[in-house]
Amino acid sequence: MSKRPPPLPAQAADMRMQMALRQIGFGAAAPAPPRPQTSDEALALKRRDWLLDVMERQRELSPYASGLLTAENLSGEDFLHSFYAPGRPVLIKGMIADWPALARWTPDYLANAIGDAMIEYQGGRNGAGDYELAKDRHKHRAPFRDFIALARSGGNDAYLTAYNSAANGPALKPLEADLGAIDAYLTRAPGMLWIGGEGTFTPLHFDLTNNLLAQVTGTKRIILVPPSQTKRLAHRTHVFSDVRDVTDAAQLKTYPQARDILRYEVLLAPGDLLYIPLGWWHQVRSESFSTMLTYTSFLWSNAGHEGYPAG
């Protein structure tokens, strides 16, 4: 394995993290209310949806083309040609099995490793339906040990997310020694850490970059929905769906078009990688105390966010 590159200066590293967060869609302001569509625009959208439906029906002809595949120790070349370039998700086993963090990162270990260093997390989420859009309003600070105690108690109210990564880099740096590298797919840029208890939930959305999720400890249940289903998902605000949870009966009653969407369900276990291409809808729920990293620093172009029509 090649040596790690020298660390970036703190200011450059912070700028790179902020860029990564913007690419994913974090921190973006909600767009202005849309103007009424012209008849030509409405027709263009109908034609686009028709094409997506036809393409989806064609993929259904093949279990290989339409299924969510699982691979083991997938080479970089196979990952590029079969999944990254085609924009197709894949669950990858075995690539990070030797990371020390998989065995070490219990709540007690994390609390002792970082101690009382001050960190930033997303708090006060219970009862706030817009906590994903209003991330800055939900920034909280606490000694890391106290945050871990909150996370251990479960629920959705306290969650250290990728949006907090830039602020937390120095405090959480000791944990990097427990991680390895995924050189077949990624540069050595750091991932963005997520730590939360059972019940933390990220509502249905898509990202503006290709993402690689690396589950370290605990389990997360992820629902993936292909871009072809967008017309059924009440997509009105930035990268979010008004259908926050496609498993919630009350929301499906409000948005009946979302009842029959094509979707894939993945239980992400320790050591699993999940590649989620740009534009694929997903929602994420922790089923236990969980630690995970998101990576966007692929070896190949990941710049789709640059042309996104945000408003």
Describe this structure in words.
By secondary structure, the protein is of the alpha+beta class. Helix content is 27%, strand content 22%. The protein has a single domain, classed as Cupin (Jelly Rolls), CATH 2.60.120.650. It is built from 9 helices and 15 strands. The strands form 4 sheets. It has a 7-stranded mixed sheet. A hairpin with a 2-residue loop joins strand 10 and strand 11 (240-241). Helix 1 crosses helix 8 (165-172) and helix 6 (107-114) packs antiparallel against helix 7. The longest helix has 21 residues, at 39-59. It is globular and about 60 Å long.
SSE ordering? HHHEHEHHEEHEHEEEEEEHEEEE
Kindly report the average pLDDT value.
88
- The CATH superfamily bears the name Cupin
Query: Strand pairing plus helix content: what structural class?
Result: alpha+beta
How many structural domains are formed by the residues? Answer: 1
Number of helices: 9
Helicity range: 25-40%
